[in-house]
Design a protein that fits this description.
This protein has helices spanning about 35-45, 65-70, 100-110, 130-140, 155-170, 175-190, 205-215, 285-300, 315-325, 335-340, 355-360, 365-380; strands spanning about 5-10, 20, 25-30, 55-60, 90-95, 120-125, 225-230, 230, 240-250, 260-270, 305-310, 350, 390-400, 405-410. With about 425 residues, it is an alpha/beta fold. It has a domain at about 5-130 and about 240-245: Peroxisomal Thiolase, Chain A, domain 1. Strand 2 and strand 3 form a beta hairpin.
């Protein structure tokens, strides 16, 4: 069976594309969901050197546009990219923050089945039109509602359970855990400062800078407030708007291998939705299973990987993801971040894009964006920090509270 390859890719800028009038509360959309989807789709097709008529199918990953922008049935919006896409099959996928990774996997299945030659995959989300309480409610709908969302549990609270479990399992002091989390966050801010597409390019780039934000200012306010102990504001990813897209085809169809990367292996593993029925709330069991599947299909080991994008929706998940992918032993990733590992100069570089922490996290677009930016690294066209070595890359995208786990191995052709 022929593998699939990415032959074109595009990432919009990520940010809060709204204008808010504090006096009136009026929110004006400055770059719409529709604008973002069309920009990304057109960009990916052009980058592939194709015309719209060459696209056989479109998969759109989007988490909750019905709640964020009052628009369901979003896949047909791809027809507005170009008139030649009219009457092509278009399908939306939804798996919370992993929506567009699952869109990619469905596109791969279509290529492998021979049903389509060239497939366009788009991930898109518009989150900033809603006030924070409403936005938090929409995201909470991606939890297990009866036992979590309905009881007031937010995603910071759900991932705080993992942080507490990790701390207890490995007997980590409060002080050391804080430094581990802040070190992971600072690394992403430092990388994101060099990503021209990143939502936040001015975050604190050292543990000392983050610690300074924990103090009360002259007005008695804390710039790094506790959100859900032990997670503070700067342990949390951004609320972003944005889109990313790619075109895939069978590797046997690739005409310009210098600008293609092969999807060498995928792992798609789904954990039980409710946290209270899961054992081992100190590791990503579904993530480990997904990584094992992806590595086996690609015929690689963790030590073969040069760079990765991991789902740092919260800094604790960056640490857990690093272990799930096999880049550090269980209970050791936090210590290795403290030791200066996983930087741009390390054997395995983590989140050169700035990750969700700095690049941003428009939930439906995140998976596609991870793949797009890794692809760009592999073909020698990096956006932001360039990898020291870029032959094999891994994307680890998570939906929900570590529920939908998508691990992809990309290989330079």
């Amino acid at each position: 069976m022929s593998k699939a390859s990415i032959i074109g890719a595009y990432n919009t800028a990520f940010g809060a594309f709204v204008k808010k009038d504090k006096a009136t509360g009026l929110v004006t959309d400055t770059k719409t969901y529709y604008d973002l989807l069309i920009e990304a789709g057109r960009g990916a097709i052009a980058d592939a050197g194709l015309e719209a008529k060459d696209i056989d199918a479109i998969y759109v990953g989007s988490c909750s546009p019905g709640s964020f922008i009052n628009q369901e049935h979003v896949a047909p919006l791809a027809a507005e990219i170009d008139p030649a896409l009219r009457f092509k099959p278009m399908t939306r996928t939804e798996c919370a923050c992993a929506s567009s990774s699952v869109a990619l996997y469905d596109a791969i299945y279509a290529v492998e089945a021979g049903r389509a030659k060239n497939v366009l995959v788009i991930g898109v989300e518009k989150m900033n039109l809603l006030p924070t309480p409403q936005m938090t409610h929409v995201l909470a709908c991606c939890s297990h509602w009866p036992t979590e969302g309905a009881l007031g549990w937010s995603f910071p609270m759900l991932f705080a359970q993992y942080a507490k479990g990790y701390q207890a399992q490995y007997k980590i002091s409060n002080e050391d855990l804080e430094k581990m989390l802040w070190t992971a966050g600072a690394l992403c801010y430092k990388n994101g400062a060099e990503n021209p597409l990143a939502h936040n390019r001015s975050g604190p780039q050292s543990v000392a800078e983050i610690m300074a934000l924990n103090e009360l200012d002259a007005r008695g306010k804390c710039k790094n407030m506790m959100i859900a102990a032990p997670l503070r504001l700067h342990d949390c990813s951004l609320v972003s708007d944005g889109a990313a897209a790619m075109v895939i085809t069978a590797t046997s169809n690739v005409s310009n291998k210098a600008r293609a990367s092969e999807i060498a292996g995928i792992g798609h593993s789904v954990e039980r939705l409710a946290e209270n029925v899961r054992p081992n709330m100190y590791e990503l069991m579904g993530g480990k299973d997904a990584a094992a599947k992806a590595y086996k299909e690609a015929g690689i080991k963790a030590s073969d990987v040069d760079l990765c994008e991991v789902h740092d929706c919260f800094t604790i998940n960056q640490i857990l993801s690093t272990e799930a992918l096999g880049f550090a032993a269980d209970g050791r990733a936090g210590h290795e971040y403290l030791d200066g590992r996983f930087t741009r100069d390390d054997k395995i570089a983590v989140n050169l894009s700035g990750g969700l922490k700095s690049k941003g996290h428009p939930v439906g677009a995140t998976g596609a964006s991870m793949h797009v930016l890794l692809h760009k690294q592999l073909i020698g066209e990096p956006i932001g920090v360039a990898a020291k070595k870029a032959d094999i890359a891994v994307a680890f995208n998570v939906g929900g509270s570590a529920v939908t786990n998508c691990v992809t191995v990309l290989r330079k052709l």
